[in-house]
UniProtKB/TrEMBL annotation:
PROSITE patterns: IDH_IMDH. NCBIfam families: PRK03437.1. The keyword Transcription does not apply. Keywords: Manganese, Metal-binding, NAD, Oxidoreductase. Residues 3-337 form the Isopropylmalate dehydrogenase-like domain. This is 3-isopropylmalate dehydrogenase. The gene is leuB. Its cofactor is Mg(2+); Mn(2+).
Length: 343
């Protein structure tokens, strides 16, 4: 049986992950789950963010389910970089997979978009870019302050994520890959991305391709999200575009993701796209659907495609039955999805 590590994290993380676990326990009794207490509380208690011993233990699991990290009481970056990004980097999770679909019954803020019309997946590079480059500041706190952040892009890193995007497109109906970058300004990284894209595209004559600058892609995701199938892009562009894609398909509370190590050398990590939502934490009103769908992606990756499909169908039923006038209650949503998924 699969061994899953759970890092519930901060804010609404434990609330939504609790519901995801409820659903997993219901459909796959006997699954071995180990909880790791990491995040703001541990940091305040012990000063630790991600001890090496815990990293080593996590490496021994088949997959990780993560809630969210980040808390207003901790300086920005300490947990985000020291915990979340450290896990993505240490476990070489270079494919940050972020599907968006408009579920039946869910209203898009775009009046013209109908359920079924939006079904896209962003393949976001997960280990490089501005997230991994050097940075520094000079004359900090003075009027002469200078800050730099460098974007790191390697041929190896760019090529492997582009290859993954084409492989995914080959398994989808529309078979189209859109490269999103900013080649008109970022002429070094942009050139590397577009030349590599051309090489891989030439090996896949049956897959349609297009290129868009990221500013135009941000616009088209709002005006015409139907036009996308697979989108491949760098780490920061992918971060921003996937919040937009989530918003146009019913909100960040529904958006699931996988930080995947396709080689299987390390565990992949499954996590909602959203954060710890300190503004609603502790009130039992966070939508657990993103966490539940992330758990379904996890089970699918571990070979439980049948169980994952049952969870996804249960989520679809939950969303179809939802009334926009009735507020989400975290635990009730989890109860209904679990009951429906068990059948
Ligand atoms: P956020 O995603 O936490 O919240 C943005 C808005 O969306 C808030 O109004 C929030 O209430 C709402 N929201 C988020 N998830 C929701 C859900 N499941 N149901 C209903 N509403 C939901 O983003 P933020 O406010 O920019 O960041 C808050 C903290 O989370 C920061 O510390 C940030 O660094 C961290 N963060 C962590 C992750 C992660 O762990 N993967 C992702 C994004 C942000
Ligand atoms: C996400 C988050 C993270 C990211 C932060 C918290 C490091 O925004 O998972 O989308 O930028 O990747
Ligand atoms: Mn984000």
């Amino acid at each position: 049986m699969a061994r899953i590590a759970v890092v519930a994290g901060d804010g609404i993380g434990p609330e939504v992950v609790g519901e995801a676990r409820k659903v997993v326990d219901a459909v796959l009794p006997g699954v071995e789950v180990t909880e790791y207490d990491l995040g703001a509380a541990r940091y305040h208690r012990t000063g630790e963010v991600l001890p090496d011993s815990v990293l080593a233990e996590l490496a021994g699991h088949d997959a990780i389910l993560l809630g969210a990290v980040g808390d207003p009481t901790v300086p920005p970056g300490v947990l985000e970089r020291g915990l979340l990004l450290k896990l993505r980097f240490a476990f070489d999770q270079y494919v940050n997979l972020r599907p968006s679909r408009l579920w039946p019954g869910v209203a898009s803020p775009l009046a013209a978009v109908k359920p079924g019309e939006v079904d896209l997946v962003v393949v976001r590079e997960g280990t490089e870019g501005l997230y991994a480059g050097a940075g520094g500041s000079l004359h900090r706190g003075t009027p002469a302050e200078i800050a730099t952040e460098e974007s790191l892009n390697t041929r190896h890193g760019v090529e492997r994520v582009i290859r993954d995007a084409f492989a995914r497109a080959a398994r989808r109906e529309r078979r189209k890959v859109t490269l999103v970058h900013k080649t008109n300004v970022l002429t070094h990284a942009g050139s590397l991305w577009s030349r590599t894209f051309e090489v891989v595209a030439a090996e896949h004559p049956d897959i349609a391709t297009e290129y868009q600058h990221v500013d135009a892609a941000a616009m088209f995701l709002v005006t015409q999200p139907q036009r996308y199938d697979v989108v491949v892009t760098d780490n920061l562009f992918g971060d921003i575009l996937t919040d937009i894609a989530a918003a146009v398909t019913g909100g960040i509370g529904l958006a699931a993701s996988g930080s995947i190590n396709p080689d299987g050398t390390y565990p992949s990590m499954f996590e909602p796209v959203h954060g710890s939502a300190p503004d609603i934490a502790g009130r039992g009103v966070a939508d657990p659907v993103a966490a539940v769908l992330s758990a379904a992606l996890l089970l699918d990756q571990l070979g439980h495609a049948d169980v994952a499909a049952r969870i996804t169908a249960a989520v679809s039923a939950e969303l179809a039955a939802r009334s926009p006038e009735v507020a989400v209650r975290t635990a009730e949503v989890g109860d209904r999805i679990a009951a429906q998924a068990v059948g």
